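Project channel, design review

CF: Before we commit to the Alectoria fallacina constructs, I'd like one complete example in the thread so the newer folks can see what an input/output pair looks like. Taking DUF7702 domain-containing protein.
RD: sounds good, go ahead.
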Amino acid sequence: MSSPSESLDIAELAIYLPLLFVTLFVVFRHGIHRQSGWIYLAIFCLIRIIGAALGISAERNPSNVSDLEWSAILGSVGISPLLLASLGLLKQITDKATTKVPTEGAIQGQSRFETLISYTILGRIFGRLGVHQFATSYRSRFLQILQLPAAIALIVCIVGGSDLTDSSVSEQSTGKKLIKAGLIIFLIIYICLFILIAKSASELNSLPASEKRVLLALVVALPLLGVRILFSLLAYFSTISTFSPTNGNVLVRACMAILEEILTVIAYTLAGILVPKHGNARIGNTEFETEHLENRKSQPARHGAHHSTRVAIQGSA
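CF: and here is what came back for DUF7702 domain-containing protein:
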């Protein structure tokens, strides 16, 4: 007979396997290089599938410590992809509610930001995922910047989870501190997300009907993400055995973590299906804006060249 933990892993596999294909459909429907958050849903489903499979393997082969370790590590990184998806979807809404064509200064500022980030490892990773997309307002750029600490917190939690499985007591202590640091970053990002979603909700009348569906999904997911983060905070900041990440109550984990994650993915996936497919309008706008900036930059040079030619002609006359 399966243990409660193994039964939970089996249930996750049964749910996330079909969800993975649906999220992949949404990703390719809206474009894999768009910074709209859909790609992180597929990444999250894949993480949960691998983690559940390793958890089942660890339950059936207790001597295989590696599977148990990686199952625990993957189980601790669920918050980051969901926050990244939320930030991406909110940025999509913000771009529609704010100025469509930014000023030249905004384009230059974005270019400097992208140039700085592109030299980092995170910049290269996120560049592959299309996170370099143009931001059309200060709020949109702030959402874009928030993705970096979310990614950093993800790495911190992975390292911390790896240290927690170490046999050394000092390494376990370090791992717990790292996970706590990552959770604090997640909490700060969540608070920012809460405020920005509230701001977008106040601009509901200026949003297209399709983006209102995305906003509705974000509003539905916001309390779910809050409960999920609360569970992790209780697991690592409290001494209540019920919330222990290793020997805690499986039913509590299912109700305060697993269920919230599943409902969040479903809400975002439904929004991705219901929202009309985006065309090339946004990409076209970005290309136009970039071309416009390049033309503006080249104008002084051309003007200077014409002026020099005119002076030379006058001198020869």
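RD: helpful, thanks. Residues 100-111, 124-135, 279-297, 299-317 have pLDDT under 50 and may be disordered.
CF: The first helix runs from residue 4 to 30.
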